């Protein structure tokens, strides 16, 4: 069958590559895709929000299945549009995607259906929000309600930092309409992890848990980013934690969305934290995460295309995963996440040995890649142990020069220490 992947980042490159290795898939297309995946997919330069034009490509190329990578097309209703056109697509409807599109809605769902999460309040005015911060104290978490490209969360360790975040979001509209409403919630102590699952018609296929590193610099210092690296599985977390999270959070959320009249189809991403009271929800995404996808999806041994088609046809498929440790490190442009340098000449990437490279913010010019974004690419490796996987990745990264770039040297430190 032919498949189409919507999106242009490292996450979508991983999805394209997984489809490319699927025996059931004969051809892969990407809209708009990126230069780094052009050897694996036919990239078509159409906006990922131009739904009629995308549907026309699907009809013209006789594409069997469309898979949506990023959150914005989902929140703007690409799945609803495809359904109205009688086309097959894997992802949540616009109503179901609000679980990610509005943090306030997600918190209200968790409150209504007793899904464990931090306590919270929602605000649209500065003064009540500041009063709440003063009452609760720090540390405390401030979140823009809407989509903010993974940058709308401030973990404030002081009241002053929290107050600045409130003012910048509500008064200064730091994230535009996305921060016209904010959620202020309890700071939870514990270790974060991600549990993703394929979902349709009440069927849930969990993936191995992963852990990413949000802070820009070694030692988990610096500003929050979209993610500087990830690894899967997470062997140092307690045995049984993933199953507990599946039962107390993921299944309850899928049931809750059914009860809300917003039945969920797609990838449900639960960003969780292991507290002394058990796993709790930090956030939900309604699609694959980045960079978790680049270390989770390559573990899949089952035919990816067939798995999704079988799931959509309610055949209750199962997934098989490898036993290896996958670890990936993001190479970012100098200045990321604030003002990344662009245009830097990247090393000859074919010289990186025993690793996979997933492109995100790169462009190909005269047979060489240059930086064109914040997070440029992710380099990953698989091995029997976390230490061996890390060693492979860092040996490859350290074997070449990265002008006007940086990467963390300690991805996976929790499981390596």
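^ Assign residues to that structure.
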């Amino acid at each position: 069958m032919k498949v189409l992947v919507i999106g242009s980042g490292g996450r979508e490159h991983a999805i394209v590559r997984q489809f490319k290795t699927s025996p059931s898939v004969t051809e892969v297309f990407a809209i708009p895709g990126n230069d780094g995946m052009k050897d694996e997919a036919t990239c078509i330069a159409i906006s990922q929000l131009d739904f009629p034009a995308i549907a026309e490509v699907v009809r013209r190329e006789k594409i069997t299945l469309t898979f949506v990578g990023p959150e914005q097309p989902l929140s703007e209703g690409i799945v609803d549009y495809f359904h109205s056109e009688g086309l097959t697509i894997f992802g949540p409807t616009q109503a179901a995607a609000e679980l990610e599109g509005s943090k306030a809605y997600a918190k209200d769902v968790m409150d209504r259906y007793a899904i464990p999460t931090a306590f919270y309040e929602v605000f649209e005015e500065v003064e009540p929000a500041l009063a709440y911060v003063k009452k609760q104290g720090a540390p405390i978490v401030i979140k823009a309600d809407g989509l903010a490209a993974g940058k709308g969360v401030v973990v404030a360790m002081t009241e002053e930092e929290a107050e600045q975040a409130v003012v910048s979001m509500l008064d200064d509209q730091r994230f535009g309409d996305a921060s016209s409403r904010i959620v202020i919630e309890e700071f939870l102590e514990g270790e974060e992890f991600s549990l993703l699952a394929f979902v349709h018609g009440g069927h849930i296929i969990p993936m191995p848990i992963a852990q990413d590193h949000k802070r820009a610099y070694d030692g988990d210092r610096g500003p929050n980013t979209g993610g500087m690296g990830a690894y899967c599985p997470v062997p140092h977390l307690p045995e049984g934690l993933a199953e507990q999270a599946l039962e107390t959070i993921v299944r309850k959320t899928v049931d809750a969305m059914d009860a809300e009249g917003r039945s969920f189809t797609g990838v449900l991403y639960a960003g969780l934290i292991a507290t002394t009271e058990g796993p709790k929800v930090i956030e939900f995404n309604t699609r694959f995460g980045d960079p978790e996808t680049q270390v989770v999806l390559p573990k899949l041994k089952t035919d990816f295309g067939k798995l999704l088609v079988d799931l959509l046809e309610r055949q209750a498929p199962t997934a098989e995963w490898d036993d290896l440790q996958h670890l990936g490190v993001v190479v970012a442009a100098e200045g990321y996440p604030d003002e990344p340098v662009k245009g830097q000449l990247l090393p000859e990437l074919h010289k990186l040995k025993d690793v996979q490279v997933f492109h995100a913010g790169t462009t190909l010019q005269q047979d060489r890649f240059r930086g064109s974004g914040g997070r440029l690419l992710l380099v990953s490796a698989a091995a029997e142990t976390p230490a061996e996987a890390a060693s492979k990745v860092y040996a490859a990264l350290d074997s070449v020069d990265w002008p006007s770039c940086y990467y963390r040297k300690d991805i996976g430190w929790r499981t390596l220490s």
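The longest strand covers residues 191-200.
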